[in-house]
Amino acid sequence: MTIITAIILIILPVLLVLPFVNVQWKGIITMAAVSIVAILSSIIAAQALAGENYEYLFKGSLVTGIIPIRIDALSGWFILIINFTVITGAVYGLQYMKAYSAQKTSLGLHCICFVLLQSSLLSICCIQNSMAFLIAWEIMALSSFILVIFEHHKKETLRAGINFLIQSHICIMFLTLGFLWVAMRMNAYDFKAIQLFSANNSLLTGVALFICFFIGFAIKAGFVPFHTWLPYAHPAAPSHVSGIMSGVIIKIGIYGILRMLLLIRCDYGLIGYLILLISIISGVYGVMLAILQHNLKRLLAYHSIENIGIIGIGIGLGCIGIGKANYILTVLGFAGALLHTLNHSLFKSLLFYGAGNVYQSTHTMDIEKLGGLGKRMPHTSLLFLIAALAICGLPPFNGFVSEFLIYNSLFTGLNGSDKTLLSFIVLGLFGLSLIGGLAMLCFTKAFGSVFLGQPRYNFHYELEEAGLGKLIPMYAIVMLIMAIGLFPKTFISVLSRPLALFTGRIVFSTQASTLPAMEAIPAIGLYALIFLLLTGLIYFARKRITLGKHMDIDATWNCGYIAPTAKMQYTASSFTRAYRKLAEPLFSISKKKKEIKGIFPTTGGQVTHPYDKAEAWLIDYPINFLKKFFNGFTFLQNGNLQFYILYGVVFISLVLVIPFVFEYLTSLINFLNTL
Amino acid sequence: MLSFLLIVLASLFFTGIIIRTKSITSGRKGPGIFQPMKDVIRLFKKGAVYSKTTSIIFQVAPSIYFASIIMAICIIPFGQYKGFISFEGDFVFFAYVLGAGKFFSIISALDTGSSFEGMGASREALFSMFAEPAFFILMGSLALLTGHTSFHEIFASLHFGSYISYILGVLATFVFVMIALVENSRMPFDDPNTHLELTMVHEVMILDNSGFDLGMILYGSYLKFAMYGAIIANLFIGIAPLYLAIPIFICTQFLFAITIGLLESFTARFRMNHNAQYILALSSVSLLIFLGVLLMLGQLN
How confident is the model at residue A276 (pLDDT cuts 50, 70, 90)? Predict the structure, then answer.
């Protein structure tokens, strides 16, 4: 209780003071407030993870009823994830926003929304009253909207922001629908009512209720086909906000799904298959589109969809495990999902911060214009490389640990003798391995064309490495990435309590005494370390052997041609050309080509624009249809004042006349009845 | 331990046998079977030329590539004898460690800023990516068949009983041979002897490597070959005692090398733009194995 009071006592004055202080102080106050709140809330979260659940009942109001604050292990895990990313985001943002210090009012709003975003995210994790939950959700949606549209003078940013705002509210609509359904039946807003409601109703009702919530949370999380806002909002936002969005805001959707799984009693097997299918599609679809992108941040945004897919595969397998009362499958599935949630929040925020460094140095995000940044920005390039390796799931980094768990849960599922399950498992194996391969193609492209080779474009300003203020939070993330990669067991043992919540849902538990894959976890860390050492050893040996040897620096081999230019380098588009040719039938890629013709050729060129087919069908077609439909009514809006007054008169008279006519008719009918 | 030594031993003459087979079939005298190793040793002694475009990545990448292959070899068991590394799900580690090495070899090609090396890198990334599902579905089927999830336990408990199992063995061998060919960039996916940069895959990626680094890359690919040969041999060794297992191992390696030599002598390289589809089709062979396993377990009634 004291801690929550302290948090509220910090946030409120900060919000009031922020608009009135100096620009320099705004950032520092924000960072300080965010850090203190993060530390305080982490204390409760850590206690919850250690087994001390926290519960406090706010009196609330007449409308909401009692507002319970409950922090269990699941909330604790997510609170810790949120806090870490938000702190690194705040420290990074402090330096990042210095470039915009002239925009004083915008910065004030930005800082306020940043503090609000953190507190709303934290409250979503612990509030268990549907009304208050929706309010917190709305605050989160609005504050992240304002954070996204920081560069609101750009048309695209505003478009992306509004797209995000509308889709956030569709998400809220589904959530409201679900909560209202329960509230109408149970007459209570407490989450326990949801539990009670699903326990008293049939499994199918539970499934329907869960799907309602799932769609709502899936929009936030970015599962295909609800992902269309994501590739617009991420690139539009300032980099530290993109990092936080991709790192934690979309994860709050995952939190919602997991929370509902704990509350709603339903047919877990069915739900599991559904989530697994959607996740595999999300994963493969996300990465397939990511490869085609030319904008670095957009590419990263599509990768978030892919990683949400990987997390979803874990959740789906875990659910199937609950449905089949398979203890090992449940543990491995949810452990993979929860750990990947943390892992993705780390490397994806690192990637976005790296992209932010590139953006502030070069002022462009177009991959085709970048190149050779590795020599100008050695720190950023190293950090980006580590994050890229981690996101591809390669050892010795953290991404491998969670993907290993998910692979293992897939192989555990093979032990069952269920044909449906087996076919889903094969699909999952196919999907997950394809995702791994495609992610490698994508990140070799991204890293190779941005940081390696020669600069492709002559910028008229000096490219500079990012300052220490930006690099320190990034190195902090790398430390954690390495720690998880090398000592995975520590982090997985922290997960034991959140996992116990899920295994507790198994009705007839056939608890295995040992988890074979869990014994492999320390092995991964050890061998990852050995891999690192071996690499070091070989590199050292190579250094020693080649020490006295003759070494030359010369031009790159170009088939004997000695005057190559930077424009002759293999570009990112050509790097993915072979893939694009294969994927073309699946996506609508608009291509404009200008051939070089004639004796004295002028300029030639080719431009490709990948477009998301799911977006075309699900968003563009319905919107165009609605536009056409409503265009039929444009005659009403003819700009004539007289007409508008007429509408008013008609409206008022209708309002007056209709009750009168209704009254008259009823009395007439009554009269006729008496006859 | 044993498998590691045997693989290193096999790697010494493996590529030599391929080259020897090719020279015999084409009626040439050809070099001796240790010539590739002599080349590598000569390269180890040489100095190097580096492109001025390259960064530290280019210097580190060959070491990482080589280390990844050594790590992968450590996982390979030998019949009933474990490799250095063995745990549940070790083949996931196997695939991803090799992936880490490949990641670096691809970006080191991009590091040169060449107009050709990116081409090879792009192809290598694409081809090996499509080979991955085939590997995982195959390992999944073997895991389903044996009920184990590590290389050692799978191979130790794999035994051939019925007709279906022989067919499965043949199909699995086919898939592993194909994966080995893709991973090592050999015919029919890539012609290592091509003279034109535009039609190369792996060779064009390492155009700028020289001296010690090139030696490591070349020897790495010999090791990789022997490693896949060892996996194929493991399919047949089972729990055979050593005096049987070692001859089986050596025979398999020989046969594998000769097969590759014959393939390279008598087939033409596939059209580059159809390679990817072909490799993806390997997954369907793996699926066939999966169905076969289901049939064996009596799940398809």
Answer: very high
